[in-house]
């Protein structure tokens, strides 16, 4: 028989009242607990794993009764609790309540008596039939089947080599427990951790975790306790059975058997000569550590580094690394520490045991025994007369460094350059390069510094620089012997003074002297030292003969250069 809705409500109310009279529990009192009550009041955003049956865990806890009275605390003992979960080594309520927890998760657990210490309790500590309240934080989880967990955080685009056993590594690290508690850091010490890999100097997990890394790579390495410090822990900072997390930056590495590694970044298409031991090299460089830290640069000083190679003036690795370079070459030289500054490093820029990388640009090199290198670009046909020592020549030139840097050019001026060959008016190398040239001939001259401007250089010319000249001989005039301003083509007149004294007044002023000399040249009887200013040459001749400087030459003063040489007097005519 169906009942009206209002009748059902009245019947339900009567049943509830009846149960209350008979002693059934009220709605606000659920009665004895059948299972552990779990309140996950803090769950971390990232949970890489949850505690499972058979896992080894470490945790802290406070244990209280319902009234808040504390009966136990791992914090008070100053040590975490470690053990295996789910295998009956803990009270059943705790075994159940800890399963599924993440590292850093916090839980409130209410453990009923039959899942705690039951009707017996713990004498003097936990009364019989006590409900227990635990506040738990999970700190570590691992399993005997765990392996090393490696996560690559960043990796350089170029990686020519990776860490192998027996390599020596330099790395920075932050070390934390699995819950994030820091225990050590190389950064706080201001220096890298330096050691060999795979030789037992590190904990097993780190030995394994560094293998395969590139210089500049960052890794997170999670190491289970049995590959770390195990049951004993380490001092006061690493508890027993603690998993370790290392954030590692590999700064550099090398092997004691390593030699110099060369990378040819740019080699000129034409390379006529390569540097060898004993050559003097000028080069620019940037010096960096393997992580890219710049420790030195010649560019910052705006000056090349100049040195002999193969003679021990520079670190052994650079001595080796510069062998065989071409002018203009860009080369990378990677030098292990045993060929650089070793375990001690250098100053505050190069740490001990650091691998060094030099990016070098070869500006030029030469050997102290080098002559002038002459390349004839053009030589006119029918060339029978060539330039000789003491000839007066006119020429155009362009001067540059071997890297193409322009220094000087005669084309910047209205007239060609003029010089008497052998008169020490130009550098020795250019003087040599202008000999035996025909008018109209063009040459390229490579002049080493000992035949150029030497170690000191000159205005606009760096010290020890090899110079490149492009020269064209425009014209030449036959010269006179050294020390002479004028020479006779034949024998000089026997009565030289009388002929030179044109007005026969017994003295020769400057005007008479000049007129006489010009007449001899015009008639082909003699020639002046070639010069762009013949008048000055004649004036110098007159001054040499006017020995008392009274403006005229007397018979006693006039002497030929040949006569003076015989008398060992070094005055000129």
Structural notes for this entry:
- With 573 residues, the chain is α+β, with helices and mostly antiparallel strands.
- Helix content is 15%, strand content 30%.
- The strands form six sheets. Strands 1, 2, 3, 4, 5 and 6 form a six-stranded antiparallel beta sheet that branches.
- β14 and β15 (294-297) form a beta hairpin.
- α9 packs across α10.
- The chain is rod-shaped.
What value does the average pLDDT take?
A: 90
Fraction in beta strands: 25-35%
- Helicity, as a percent range: 10-25%
The value of Rg in angstroms is 49 Å
Q: What's the main sheet like?
A: 6 strands, antiparallel
Q: How many helices?
A: 11
N-to-C span:
160 Å
Ranges where pLDDT stays below 50 over 5 or more residues in a row are: 1-29, 568-573
What's this, in brief?
This protein has helices spanning 5-21, 74-77, 92-98, 186-189, 204-209, 316-321, 428-433, 496-500, 510-522, 534-545, 561-566; strands at 37-42, 56-64, 70-73, 81-84, 106-111, 132-142, 149-154, 168-177, 182-185, 193-196, 218-223, 244-254, 261-266, 280-289, 294-297, 305-308, 330-335, 356-366, 373-378, 392-401, 406-409, 417-420, 442-447, 467-477, 486-488, 508-509, 526-528, 552-553. With 573 residues, the chain is of the alpha+beta class. A hairpin with a 4-residue loop joins strand 14 (280-289) and strand 15.
